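ok trying again, last paste got cut off:
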Amino acid sequence: MTIPRNPYAPPGAPGAPAAPVMPLPEGVRRVRLDPVRYRAFVRARLVRSYVLLGVAVVAVVYVMRDAFSGGTFAVWLGIVAAGIALGVVRVRRLNARAFETYELLVGPRAIRRVVAGVPPAEVLRPEVTGAFETRWGVWLTCTTPRCALYVARAVDGYDELRAALAAWAPIEVLGGGRAWWRSRRASVRQAPRDPVHGTALAADPTLGPELELLRHASSTAWMAFPQVSPLRRRRIVLAIMAMWILIFAVFELAYRPGPP
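nice, full thing came through this time. structure:
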């Protein structure tokens, strides 16, 4: 029998055998990102980010207006423009990787999501205690252990998948600051479903094999890229923000007009 090649596997060494496509277990569905939905999804998030960045730049210019002369303003504007350009290039590369490697495996009692750049995220149906939906997608949350999984609105067949997840837990629709805060709290809890003691994996011995079947059938394309945990990623973003604040403070102190 000819084994089909896994189109999501990372490139192997020259002459190495192709990674096979693992058959899906019975009742498991493989979900990928929809190209049209994903482009609209990325565009909407970028527009929001650019609007917030524009407001921040205007606010900084207003606060530091007395420190700016023609030369200092040009230097500061060049630093900001270079930072934005590098950010845009990086975001485009990360989005392309995400589209190529994203995979969601949905089983009767387990879900596994893999994508380049972050470790896999997994949840088990008996442990799901809540679900909420924001503008960007649905979050499933668990209290024991404290974990979560995010399903982007850009996936293929989102409405059908949302209806299926509503059977796991009632989905609360959120907006505004509450949606942002809940999503921010849940995002750092996405991780592989490894803890056993005191959880449903210990209480139900059939859950572990189900989860292992999903892992065995899962794509390995994400493994070709470095992984950064959501918590570490947040710390990196905060460090970058602190660096920009420091740069602004240095400009303010160095070029503040002295007394007449």
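cool. Residues 70-101 form the longest helix (32 residues). Residues 1-19 have pLDDT under 50 and may be disordered.
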